[in-house]
Amino acid sequence: MIRLLLFLIAVPAWAQATGLPSAPVRDVAETHYGVTVHDPYRYMEEPDNPEAQTWAREQAALVAARLEALPARKAIYERARVLEAEQGAEVSNILRVSLDRFFYQKREPGRSPARLYERVSGQERLVLDPETFAGKSGGPALIDHYSVSPDGHYLACGISLGGSENAALYVIELASGKQNGFRIERVRWGPVNWLPDSSGFFYNQLQPLAPGASRQDVFQRSRVFLHRVDERAGDPDQAVFGSDLNEAVNIRASELPFVMTYKGCDQAFGYVTTGVSGDYAVYTCPLARINGARTPWVKIADMSD
After folding, report:
1. Global pTM value
2. What is the pLDDT, as a whole number, of residue 266?
3. Which one of 72, 160, 174, 231 has the lowest number of neighbouring Cβ atoms within 10 Å?
């Protein structure tokens, strides 16, 4: 809210600004179906590009200077802080695991980011503070997603650093707070889906990019893996669903695969989506027959159905 108010009062000043930082033109021309398309700022898509970074820093410095120069800024900022404090804590992502046991994220006034809490019979306790994962990254650590095992013993939690939204997955024993020794990278899409007996879970993992690979490939060819909580650290998880894995499953490189489980059901369901539409292809397989790349998936619905 504070940033929004400052933005609104700064708009007139920006409209009158002169000497704005200019971005170099580095035209990239591509021909598609006989039409040439020009993109003069393609390099802006590269976070590590020095020219893009310089332009962003100059823009940030200009905005900061103009905001500081606004006569009403300080008064509005202080009033917004008072109003924010009066609102109380923000509670989100509530998960009910039993009649009197809840998990939720809570952000107290003046504090960021949200922390994960558990409430049992009305008693609240802090389960996870993402800042303990920040280390020396220099950026904030955020809880992107979390899931509690059906038996209530384990927490699978995705933590991202520096606003990357590209979470690393950790498994924590709730009673002791101890991690099981695993750190699973590139688990952007969550939460995970637990097996009914709480012995493991399915998760989608993005592919690792090879040196020199295009950053546009980051979301290509993701796969679903099965993780067992009793595995030894260092043991690889098995890929069970995804592109170029199983002849019975037709998944394009750009499509996203997920595997879901449901309470009281002995089947696993594999879903394939484009990520931009509400259409799915659906596969199924008995949980007892999940076996890596040899899992006997059967297609029961297509995106056109």
Report:
1. 0.76
2. 95
3. 72
